[in-house]
Design brief:
This protein is an alpha/beta fold and about 260 residues long. The protein contains eight helices and 13 strands. A five-stranded mixed beta sheet has the order 4-1-3-2-5, with helices on both faces. A four-stranded parallel beta sheet has the order 6-10-9-7. The radius of gyration is 18 Å and the shape is globular. The chain starts with a strand and ends with a helix.
Length: about 260
Amino acid sequence: MKPILNIAAYLFVSLDNLTELRAKILDECNACQLKGTILLTGEGINMFLAGKEAELRGFLDWLRLDPRFSPLEAKESWSETQPFKKMLIKIKNEIIRMNHPAIRPEEGRANFITPKKLQEWLDRGTDDLGRPVVMIDTRNAFEVDYGTFDNALHFNINKFTEFPEAISEHKEALADKTLVSFCTGGIRCEKSGLYMREIGMQHSYQLEGGILKYFEEVGSAHYTGSCFVFDEREALEPNLDSIPVENSIRKKLKA
């Protein structure tokens, strides 16, 4: 097994005293020799961390001692080397910016579908009621370039704040379809799924755990390419290995 454990995790939960919380978490991360990025906001936490397995699992156990973080779940992958250069904890206004303050995942999630169930739907081409299934990619255009679900609809957006207007423009065309929104690890879909329901797209779901969870539980079925990740690995293949250097989009752009 590769020596470095990587985790991606988020949780929508009301947080206060962010400066004090930041200091406590940073001290614990440094004590565990972890590196990565944590975002703290009034609406929750978002983390991308890497380190030795025992230390990283120990940190997660420590964090979950706080009742606010006890439900937190992490998606895992492994690497030969540490993919982050430093440990950063940032205080932000939103975990993922959407500019729709009425959308509050903590108060109730959108309907979700598990990776295994999604595979069943995609194998068949319809949901359990016979409705055609359309995959909705909520990510930015450069992320889509690395890979996406086959025949997925995406909007060539440059930032997530553009998503609400983009999906609204397709509301009528998608009215008779079952929609499954997806992103890297699920966090954007916590908001996009609620927004789609808010504007009347009632037959919509979010992919639980995003692409990374789908890779973990299903693999490459109905997916072409890799998945961009926000660290030095650049992107992960469906087997959760880093992409080969020769396939690096960053390398090609620098050439």
